[in-house]
Amino acid sequence: MNDSNNELKQKVKDYPRLSVAPMLDWTDRHCRYLHRLLSRHALLYTEMVTTGALLHGDVARHLRLNAEEHPLALQLGGSEPADLAQAARLGQEWGYDEINLNCGCPSERVQRGAFGACLMREPALVADGVKAMRDAVTIPVTVKHRIGIDQDESYGFVRDFVGTVADAGCEVFIVHARNAWLKGLSPKENRDIPPLRYGVVAQLKRDFPQLTIAINGGIKDSATVAEQLTLVDGVMVGREAYHNPWWLTTWDEQFFGAAPFALSHREIEAHMVAYMQREAAEHGTHWYAIARHMLGLRHGLPGARHWRQVWSNHRLKDLPASDVSHIANTKQDKNDSF
Question: Is 169 annotated as a binding residue?
């Protein structure tokens, strides 16, 4: 048992400095495959998967992953400790490297399920869930949460939440540096309207130096990442990683001390075409379902609009992915350059 605990502590100690956030309808296994091509070391997260979907639904559909995706975390949505434990056990059996509990999603649908951000009001229940999952698996169990609920901006609220959950054995907290407004704002508005308060996350790290604290929310460039890494242990990037995925190619060298990224846009696209062909053969997946995740790959480059329009053109769906790639890379006019 001591060896298992020591191994777990080492995994927590080695927690990646950068990660890509769990994003509903976006970070499926196809998106994660692309992101792993661009960064070997960033931690990737699944979309949130509810315990009900795993315990009463198609487990393979929700948990299937590519071997290339590691390190990879499964984010769970739920509040019943026994269900969380069973879902976490499934996650470990399917090969995930971390189980993360969602205590940050503010959507009304999630609230009706009594999980997500509203769980911050019940830190003892979250602690029970964390303990149940830790008893069920040997991989790290982490929590992603907000800094507050509704208009209450008191620091004591989030400090006490973290303290209570940490007492149950959670050592890693990913903190979205905005409050979650449970009424009056949509999930999209909740990502923009509540003000960012990075200082609260830095204060959590000062108050809990023994914990691993990662920050999330509104981070869009490497300068901000570098600044935050002087204050906390990790940075989680959300929408910018999806819309501008080429940014990930700078992460391994700048933040993990690895060799510079060596592949071109065309080579990454070729890898994705090969993946599309593999997915079609093994699972019957249409390339169109995969291509949507790479539409930002040429963000800011000449000819990007033409390239993006080709890959998103439903009239080309009957063509093989390799043919679509050829059309996308045919210069639209003499000014385009790939």
Answer: no
Q: How far apart are CA 201 and CA 269, in angstroms?
A: 37
- Asked whether 114 and 69 are in contact (CB, 8 A), the reply is no
CA distance 204 to 270: 44
Catalytic residue among 31, 103, 105, 118: 105
CA distance 48 to 64: 14
Per the annotation, does 23 bind a ligand? yes
Residue 165 tokens, joined: 């959950």
- Strand (E) or helix (H) holding 47: strand 43-50
Q: Which residues contact 3 (CB under 8 A, 6 or more apart)?
A: none
22 assigned to a ligand binding site: yes
- Is 118 noted as a catalytic residue in this protein? no
Instruction: Count Cα neighbours of 150 within 13 Å in the Cβ-side half-sphere.
Output: 7
The three-state secondary structure class of 14 is coil
Q: Is residue 307 predicted with pLDDT exceeding 90?
A: yes
Distance, in Å, from the CA atom of 287 to the CA atom of 306, rounded to the nearest integer, reads 18
State the pTM of this model.
Answer: 0.92
pLDDT (tens digit per residue) in 117-175 = 999 999 999 999 999 999 999 999 999 999 999 989 999 999 999 999 999 999 999 99
- DSSP state at residue 292: G
What sign results for the dihedral spanned by CA atoms 121, 124, 130, 133?
negative
Binding site annotation covers 216? yes
**298 touches 304 (CB < 8 A):** yes
**Residue 255, token pair as written in the block:** 């933040």
pLDDT tens for residues 194-236? 999 999 999 999 999 999 999 999 999 999 999 999 999 999 9
Q: Provide the b/e sequence for 234-268 (b: ≥16 CB within 10 Å).
A: bbbbbebbbebbbbbbebbeebeeeeebeeebeeb
Q: Tell me which amino acid residue 262 is.
A: A
